[in-house]
Amino acid sequence: MQTYPQSPVMGQMMSQPLSVSSIIRFAARHYGSSEIVSRRIEPDLPALHRYTYRDCEARARRLAQALQDRGVAMGERVGTLAWNGYRHLELYYGVSGSGAVLHTINPRLHPEQIAYIVNHAEDQYLFFDLTFLPLVEGIAAHCPTVKGFVLMSDRAHMPATTRIANLLCYEELIEAADGAYTWPDFDENAAASLCYTSGTTGNPKGALYSHRSTVLHAYASAMPNVLNVSAIDTVLPVVPMFHVNAWGLPYSGLLSGAKIVFPGAALDGKSLYELFEEEGVTFSAGVPTVWLGLINYALQNGLQFSTFRRTVIGGSACPPAMMDTLIDKFDVQVIHGWGMTEMSPLGTTGGLLAKHRNLPREEQRKILQKQGHAIYGVDMKIVDDDGVELPWDGHSFGHLLVKGPWIVASYFRDEGGDVLQDGWFPTGDVATIDPDGFMQITDRSKDVIKSGGEWIGSIDLENIAVSHPAVLQAACIGVAHPKWDERPLLLVVRRPGAEVTREELLGFFEGKIAKFWMPDDVVFVDSLPIGGTGKIQKNKLREQYRAHRLPGV
Length: 553
Ligand code: ADP
What we know:
This protein is 28% helix and 23% strand. It has 553 residues and is α/β, with parallel strands linked by helices. Among the domains are: 20-214, Rossmann fold, CATH 3.40.50; 448-544, ANL, C-terminal domain (GMP Synthetase, Chain A, domain 3).
């Protein structure tokens, strides 16, 4: 870790480590009665569980004590395979607060990949929701470091399985602890949590967040320019707690005093809509594919939201058509967010400047559609293939590099070796930055379509396609071409009952893009492959359409 010169005159403020436990301590003491509502996983219990920050802190402390009693030491990893819910939140605070490392695992990954991650992290305990019992039964024998598998439920729901040795019950662990535990203090640079990247190529790599990085990220992300979370909000994170800490909402929500609503396993449009309405959700966050379900449900049933007013959409580009629907049809403000696992994850958020206040609606919308402004703490730049910095003119596009106190310096166990370039982290994204500092992602480096030495941005083409009324989803990939290297192929899922032909769709692009960006072909499909983090898997599509013959070839 880098060290810095000391001044002969040091500041004289109290020194207090920035720790994850400081958030729950603060939350319970100063917003103790704020509510946490969770959709339960156990099908036979009342649908919603409800308690307060104060209750959560007390149980998180008992959990920390139980881990201590079982000999989980500082720095040791504790895995979770769980939905967004109150027990998962207790693990967020109980594990990290005790000095151990919370290792959230994406249950949508392939079981072999999950076992690989558990072993790579050397998880000591693995906590899991009832839903994932079959998954854990399948991998338990292949995870030798795990001393106990803890089912996140009560005694009544413990299964009679013989396939998991050392199966423990969450509620029994909590009950066995007497609660006489105080949160320990330690260096703020200690590891707090671990999240593996989805690893579309090669094995997943771990981003190891520190207490300091977690608190700074949470602090910064609550700011008005970012998520603008406050005590008057009811926050429903649709983004999973198993991937990049639900964009920090389990921390930023609690330090803001907001009411928290967890959707559990029910992420379909109907279940989400009902929970939004019943609990008075004002603010939410998720990837575009999730909003697709919710918006379609509301549109098909002629429904409006009575309290929902703001949402952050990120993880992949928010199609302008989706932003328009949310703003114009539902009066929901859309904040476009960009980031990645390696960035805790937030790097930029969209929004307007004072000087944009009187711009026409269409002009404002163009600004909001960009991935937005760097959040204080994050710096960014774009460079060409030789690493030379490119101008912030809104046109030049290049590799996007970032730095900041919540961005990885290296991966867990130094997997992948040196990742930084002169102290900057290469994001793998290609972007422009305009003179006002608004960043816009053109593409992921690996998704860019390279045609005759020029780059074609697939996101722009997809955004245009989904603005056609008959198109539900679209993905654009590069397909080999003998003359141009690659040419764009557009894959389209039509809206149920809607009709549109290849020619009509290509005609729709006329005048909207440079001629050489025009997709060479359109293929209509029933669905697109969606990965574990809710994104369209373009690598799979590239594989599948590798041999696709473009017209005229
Ligand atoms: P993975 O997709 O491997 O799970 P992450 O969840 O960390 O990895 O995703 C990070 C990537 O997602 C970014 O590098 C970027 O390519 C893409 N991404 C995230 N937010 C946006 C956005 N708002 N617009 C476009 N791309 C985005």
